[in-house]
Design goal:
Layout: H1 12-29, H2 31-44, H3 56-62, H4 79-92, E1 93-103, H5 108-125, H6 131-142, E2 144-153, E3 162-168, E4 175-177, E5 191-199, H7 200-206, E6 232-252, E7 258-262, H8 268-277, E8 281-295, E9 298-304, E10 312-316, E11 318-322, E12 325-329, H9 336-354, E13 361-362, H10 372-376, E14 403-404, H11 412-429, H12 445-458, H13 460-484, E15 489-494, E16 500-505, E17 513-516, H14 537-544, E18 547-550, E19 556-565, H15 567-584, H16 589-598, H17 605-613, H18 618-687, H19 694-712
Parallel strand pairs: 16-18
Antiparallel strand pairs: 1-19, 2-3, 2-10, 4-5, 5-6, 6-7, 6-8, 8-9, 11-12, 13-14, 15-16, 17-18
Helix pairs in contact: 4-6, 9-11, 15-16, 16-17
């Protein structure tokens, strides 16, 4: 392929020469396809009026144009149904672009907004029904369809803001593209042009200032102009892609980081400093696309665009290059021969039936003589019987009875040929009767889906090429959005379910996405003036009047195409799945039931979902908050009461313990006092002379005897046993305790036992005059001699 030089934009003659050269190169490269595509398109639209599915020579011979009687030439267009099967499947699918954040400051929230912006561009362009549907039709029918992306001012608004629009290309043959492309999606093509001939009066209305200049047509080929083209003006929209060369420098920053700067954006001082510092640098190119509008032989307008790729996107069918010649086709071309075979067999079958006899009866004219009217109307009247003559009246010979002939029958060979042609059409398309709607042997839903999947697999290359084109459309828009949305503006963002929301494009924002207030001021992040429980950013615009703002110039984004079931289909699948979950697990209804209504498509389903997920009303919520506060206060009071009860119980236990301790202390003190008293008593008894106790004891004994005598008067006398000396001897028989007291003296030693303090014996001194003489008690026995007679105390 030739490598064409790029003419300077300010040289109109050079640009026109470049256009002629490139147009001729594309026309020669695609010449075979253009001729065949026209035939394929005519064959697809063949019917009983135009007979485009018949070969011209065969149709002329059968229609009587070469002499002879006309013969049937039927057109039963089964090709269109096979083509529509693929096209309508694509129309039912949801063609959407998904944007992913890939780094350099990009965020997932900004990617969602950019994806919603692209979806809204498709919506305002009606791309699904216009541009995409038209491109898919060209892809399936002739092997190529095109989509045109343009920028234009917003309609119906007094504003200088522009937006993107996706336009359709009615005829794929209008587009002439770079034949040197290598990529299957043609994303590397360096130029393309749309050529169309419009009536002169329409051109005069669109471009009144260039009416005279457009009268001279752009002669792309000598002798090309026809009589019809003299009343039209050839208008060309020519795009060419080129690169701006630049140098990228790694500029060190004061904080130690390195910032990449382009030499074209630097001052001479900065460039000199980087060169002296020996900073790293490399050559880079920046792709850009120029646009030229050519009417006739005049360049009406030209200038740079916001695109980095040529904004013409192809939807490729089946494309191949054989020995330098391009070959493209869709689904129509493989169906041409089977379709013609079917038309010829159907025509021959009808012809064979038409040539057979139509008489229903075989009779002898003598048998119906006289009843001609009845027999002639036998096929139109409901007679109970038909009379006939069985014997000839002249010679009395029998006449054969009338016989009904067999009805006309078609040729089984022609009928078999029709069936074979139908089967061959199914074979070349991969679409069998089950996929075309005819009942098959499949009964279960799984078997039906598997059969449908086989058909989708046979024609999946069309679906895959649609996704490839859709991805290129998304990439073109993602690259161009920062140049069109270069000022602060509010944009519409569309979700997958068709809901619209508003976002704010702020090129001066210091991050890819942030929540801003109604005045455009970024809201502080959580923890800096925000409550701990911050709402979701997606709902914050509803709750607080805030809005999500994005800066499309920050970050890098990539796109992927999603060509799958439409949202309505996926919504129905979700409804069926949730219904099965509820049927198998009714206990999950409180959690799963709201999503069932969200996936429903009947009236008031959205209102029911909002009612189930909206939460309580403000009054009920306030009452619930009051109840919760009272419950907290009650729990606090109960906890305080439990603490008080525990404290009271502890104090009671302590008082009881103190009382027991006091009683024990008093008991111990009483026992100690009693012990002390006993000790003192024993000490006192030990220090008293037994003789001094005699009077007391005698009195005590006497009282006891008196009491006993009073009792003896009522009871018999029992002789009293005589005590024997020993441990149980009477008190007077017990030996006295050793003591230092003089017998008969007064008791003066309180504790004479062991451990008691015994006073020292007094110093011997002169005795008082009336003191008795000391008695020697050394050998005096402590107890009286039992042999010595004692005085009778009684």
């Amino acid at each position: 392929m030739r490598d064409f030089r790029v003419a300077p934009a300010d040289d109109p003659e050079a640009v026109l020469a470049e256009v002629r050269e490139r147009f001729a190169a594309s026309r020669d490269f695609e010449a075979d396809w253009r001729a065949q595509a026209l035939e394929d398109l005519r064959f697809f639209h063949g019917d009983a009026r135009n007979h485009n599915q018949w070969d011209a020579a065969a149709y002329q011979a059968r229609s009587g144009g070469l002499g002879g009687s006309p013969r049937p030439c039927l057109t039963i267009n089964k090709t269109a149904q096979h083509v529509f099967q693929v096209e309508n499947d694509a129309r039912q699918a949801a063609m959407s672009v998904k944007v992913n954040a890939t780094g350099f400051g990009a965020s997932a929230k900004a990617a969602d907004v950019l994806e919603g912006i692209i979806r809204h561009i498709e919506y305002q362009s009606n791309a699904q029904q216009n541009a995409y549907a038209n491109a898919i039709a060209g892809q399936v029918r002739v092997g190529m369809g095109w989509v045109h992306i343009v920028t234009d001012y917003l309609q119906g608004q007094d504003s200088f803001d522009q937006d993107f629009f996706i336009r359709s290309v009615p005829d794929p043959s209008f587009v002439y593209s770079d034949p040197n492309t290598i990529e299957p999606d043609h994303s590397d093509m360096r130029w393309a042009m749309i050529v169309e001939d419009i009536p002169k009066h329409v051109f005069a209305r669109l471009y009144p200032e260039h009416e005279e200049e457009a009268c001279v047509p752009l002669m792309l080929d000598p002798g090309e102009e026809t009589e019809a083209q003299r009343e039209t003006v050839r208008v060309m929209r020519y795009y060419r892609r080129s690169e701006r060369r630049d140098v990228l420098w790694a500029a060190p920053q004061p904080d130690g980081t390195v910032k990449s700067l382009r030499q074209s954006e630097m001052t001479s001082e900065q460039l000199r400093a980087l060169r002296e510092a020996g900073a790293r640098h490399r050559a880079v190119t920046q792709p850009h696309v120029e646009f030229f509008l050519i009417a006739g032989s005049t360049i009406v307008s030209h200038g740079p665009t916001v695109f980095r790729h040529v904004p013409l996107v192809p939807f490729v069918g089946i494309e191949s290059v054989i020995r330098g010649r391009l070959d493209r086709h869709g689904l129509v071309r493989p169906l041409i021969d089977p379709q013609r075979m079917y038309n010829y067999s159907a025509s021959a079958f009808v012809e064979s039936v038409a040539l057979q006899a139509k008489a229903p009866w075989l009779v002898d004219e003598r048998a119906v003589e006289g009843w001609e009217n009845e027999w002639s109307s036998a096929n139109t009247s409901n007679r109970a019987y038909l009379p006939y003559r069985g014997i000839d009246p002249d010679d009395a010979t029998p006449i054969p009875a009338p016989q009904r002939l067999d009805p006309p029958t078609g040729s089984t060979g022609h009928l078999q040929a029709m069936q074979n042609a139908d089967l061959q059409m199914q074979m070349v398309t991969g679409q069998y009767q089950a996929e075309m709607g005819a009942p098959g042997n499949e009964r279960s839903g799984r078997a039906i889906n598997e059969r449908q999947r086989q058909s989708d697999t046979a024609n999946y290359h069309y679906t895959d090429n649609q996704g490839m084109a859709l991805r290129l459309i998304g990439k073109i828009l993602i690259d161009a959005i920062p140049f069109v949305y270069d000022t602060r503006r509010a944009v519409q963002v569309m979700g997958q379910d068709g809901t619209l929301s508003t976002a704010l494009v702020m090129p001066g924002l210091d991050q890819a996405a942030a929540m801003v207030g109604p005045d455009g001021t970024p809201l502080p992040p959580q923890g800096q003036g925000q409550p701990p429980a911050q709402p979701d950013p997606g709902r914050q615009n509803v709750i607080e009047g805030a809005m999500l703002a994005v800066n499309p110039t920050i970050g890098r984004y990539d796109v992927e195409a999603d060509v799958g079931p439409a949202f309505a289909t996926r919504r129905q699948d979700a409804f069926n799945a949730i219904s099965q979950i509820l049927a198998s697990d009714p206990a999950s209804a409180p959690t799963v039931l709201p999503y069932l209504f969200k996936a429903s498509d009947f009236p008031l389903a959205d209102e029911i979902y909002e009612a189930l997920t909206a939460g309580p009303s403000p009054q009920l919520q306030q009452a619930q908050e009051t109840i919760a506060q009272l419950q907290q206060e009650l729990q606090a009071a109960q906890a305080h009461l439990q603490l008080r009860q525990a404290d009271i119980a502890w104090r009671a236990q302590k008082a009881q313990a103190d009382t027991q301790l006091d009683a024990m202390r008093l008991q111990v003190e009483a026992q100690a006092r009693q012990h002390r008293d006993e000790t003192d008593r024993m000490a006192a008894l030990g220090s008293i002379d037994p003789q001094s106790l005699r009077p007391v004891l005698e009195e005590l004994v006497r009282q006891v005897l008196v009491q006993e005598r009073g009792q003896d008067m009522q009871q018999p006398q029992v002789p009293e046993p005589q005590p024997e000396p020993g441990p149980s001897a009477p008190l007077h028989a017990l030996p006295p305790l050793p003591t230092t007291n003089v017998r008969g003296d007064a008791v003066h030693a309180p504790r004479p036992v062991v451990g008691a303090v015994t006073p020292s014996p007094p110093e011997p001194g002169p005795a008082p005059p009336d003191a008795p003489a000391p008695t020697d008690t050394t050998n005096t026995p402590d107890t009286p001699d039992p042999n010595t007679p004692q005085e009778d105390l009684t």
